[in-house]
Amino acid sequence: MSETEISPEREPRAVCLPMLKGGFGKSIFANTLGGVLGELRNHDVLVADLDPAGHLSTGLGYYTREDEDTLDLGDVLLEDANPGDIIKQPGYGFDFIPSVNLETVTEDLARDSVMASDMRLKQDLVDPLLSDEYEYILFDIPGSRNKLVNNAVVAAPNAILPLKPVPEALNGMRETATKLVGEIRQHIDFEILAVVPNDLRARIDQQTKDRRLLEAMNTQEQFAAYLLAGRDGVDPDTGTLPEDVDVGEVLDNHIPPFARVTADEWAAIDEGEIDPPKIPIRHSAAFGDAYEERKPVTTYDPECSQIQHFEALAEIIERGGIYQ
């Protein structure tokens, strides 16, 4: 609900969706953002499914998970194969690397030295392709940490984090902050571009699951500490920030304007001074229907009302974050 301006700096960027919890909509975010950036905003985009479960791949019509005769990501990372040999063109405005043999790839990476194995995706896929071939590369990654997750956050140190209004949402955020973001920031500059509420459908002028998630995201120092995990003086376990860090400013810089509700605005909603807004991203049957049709929603239903909010996220990706 607040007004923000986004930094005008634009450059090619690799982005990951690294929530250490499944079921929050990462695959839908990946294919929808791929469609928005590619089909609607005319960028050259590559989307890669790094989850052995392959939900993103299934949603785009790629069903094979294990096939030892098929070239896969392991051939690129460990056998010097050409990345172009594993890239598909599904026809939805972006190119795609499906999930194939990823359990084996993860095991093979684990046999390499720690530093070398965590750099493979950056060195052998992202560095050769970003800028020269693609303006944006998006990685959908699994909900539990493994060598492919390590590779993804090193290769794509810019994160979009979707959260659903379910009881485990804040725990998933805590796990991601303490066990992934905080640790990786000890080694590289890793940015959370946006944390995005997803699949909302309830009123927020009552104590619903939607309200509890949105109010925590928009008001709590604990949540701000998750966002800054790994920064100097930040303790995500106790939820404390350095004295000179303003909680509201941290939240302003990580929550998209369409989902930002300040403490004063919550008070005004509760007093009946303003009507409770319907905060995006809303539940829409179009996402599930598109998945069943094996298409991104940008192709299946270009008039879906929620696409406009993914366009706002695409602009955040283009410009590298939200800035006051």
Automatic annotation (TrEMBL):
Signal peptide positions on this chain: none
Family annotation (InterPro entries): AAA_dom, DNA_Partitioning_ATPase, P-loop_NTPase
Domain of life: Archaea
Domain AAA: start-end pairs: 16-187
Alphabetized SUPFAM superfamilies for the sequence: P-loop containing nucleoside triphosphate hydrolases
Record Pfam families: AAA_31
Keywords tagged on the record: Plasmid
Keyword ATP-binding: no
Nucleotide-binding keyword on record: no
PANTHER family: COBYRINIC ACID AC-DIAMIDE SYNTHASE (PTHR13696:SF99), P-LOOP CONTAINING NUCLEOSIDE TRIPHOSPHATE HYDROLASE (PTHR13696)
Protein name per its UniProtKB record: ParA family protein
Organism: Halorussus limi
